[in-house]
Amino acid sequence: MEIATIKSPVDVIGLPSEIPVAIHRNGVNPKLEGVKNLFDAYRIAPERRRGVAKVDNLQSFIDLVNRHKDEHSVIFANTDLKAAKLLAVIDYHETSGVARFGNHRIEYNFPTTKEFQVWQQFNGEKFDQGEFAAFLEDHIAELASPNDTKRSDAETNDAEKSESEKSESEKSKYEQLFKTRFGNPNEIIDLSRGLQVNVGATLKTSVTLQSGEGEVVFSEKHTNTQGEKLIVPGLFMISLPVFEAGEPVRIPVRLRYRAGAAIKWFYQLYRPEHFLREQIKNDLLTAAQETGLPAYEGAPEA
Which residue of 49, 53, 100, 186 pairs with 104 in a disulfide if CB–CB is 3.0 to 4.6 A? Predict the structure, then answer.
């Protein structure tokens, strides 16, 4: 067996000008054979980088992309909540038109936090009074006050402007939309403790006030007392990281109850998919800024 080279008569994009071959001289019927498999058996390093690295948070995505990127790397984003993803293609095609393999990739799939999963799990579910009081107590740290002033352009990046420019503030926007009042964290905590005190009490009256708030009056069982009035704000705000190790996301929440033999309490997250999608777009912008790479909404070639 001899090793020889075959030269290409013309330049072909993506191919070397010559390749090695093995020549088997079998009498009058010589045979040519590629030597790639022969040499691959003795490799001490891969011929090129390939595969998909998966990271668990945005900062790890940025750090790993910065470690491997070159001048032609790009980032793609899928902003569909069912398949949210940032994908960096390290060996993407060159801007000059030279094609590359696109096999070295870094992927971040936006894993959600356990805290947000709980809010999603019980969204719209009806609670007994004691259960709802305990739920609010368990999630005190995630309660927030609505913003009452519009942020200036200097305080608002481009990805946020679409939301902030639509209203003077969170407070005015959602109070006008739902014709009710926001409860601040202290009011929600007071409400939860009032509910705990009245566990076992019967509902005497339930009315909707002109402000849109609810007023609930309990009467203790087997007594003739007037009971305690509880003012129920129709809205409250939560602020919590939705994605692991991510920035807090603010979501308005409607506070509801159904009067009956036993009062039932529940909450409704208002358009959570909108606020999550905005956060994904913000994270895409952050990744692009921190890596210096072009970013696109979509997917690379398969």
Answer: 49
- In this structure, is residue 135 part of a structural domain? yes
Residue 276 lies inside a defined structural domain of this protein:
no
Q: SS3 helix, strand, coil % of the chain, rounded to 5?
A: 30, 30, 40
| Interstrand relation of 104-108 and 51-55 (parallel, antiparallel or unpaired) | parallel
- pLDDT tens for 31-62 read 888 999 988 999 999 999 999 999 999 999 99
Q: Is 203 within 8 Å of 259 (Cβ atoms)? A: yes
Domain residue limits at 87: 51-111+283-297
Q: Are residues 91 and 138 in the same domain?
A: no
* Number of domains present in the structure of the chain: 3
pTM of the model: 0.80
Give the residue from 269, 298, 274, 295 showing the smallest Cα distance to 283.
Answer: 295
Task: Name the region of 292 (left: φ>0; alpha: ψ -120 to 50; beta: rest).
Answer: left
Q: What is the pLDDT of residues 98-111, one digit of tens each?
A: 999 999 999 999 99
Residue-wise pLDDT tens digits, 242-259: 999 999 999 999 999 887
